[in-house]
Amino acid sequence: MTTDNIDFDHLLRSNLERVFNERDDDKRRAAIAELFVEEPVMYEPTDIVQGRAEISRVAANLLKQFGPTFRFIPDGVAVGHHGLAHLAWHAGPEDGPVAVTGADVAEIEGGKIARLWVLLNAQKSK
What we know:
Pfam families: SnoaL_2. By secondary structure, the protein is an alpha+beta fold. The protein is about 30% helix and about 40% strand. The chain is globular and about 40 Å long.
């Protein structure tokens, strides 16, 4: 499969919505199996997470930590070519202030996310 045929926007938006916004463990695991290669790696600012089960665990913990209305919202359209894609996002409670902004950068192999870098923007000082 060439990367010219990949819908980068759909892939990265699905990752936000179906993995990092999904509170149901079974639905999240099914989405990860569909969207990620068998042995994915996720690079967070403070950790390297390996494997589908660990990515699911991290997503579940984030949602528990930040409360029942916390959501990741895509900003604009994901862009990509030659196996690399980028999607900016913001996150926070629904109808509340933005808590964090950042972007996901993904390396795509065979139409699935192989490696995902979670980049957080610096917090603005008040």
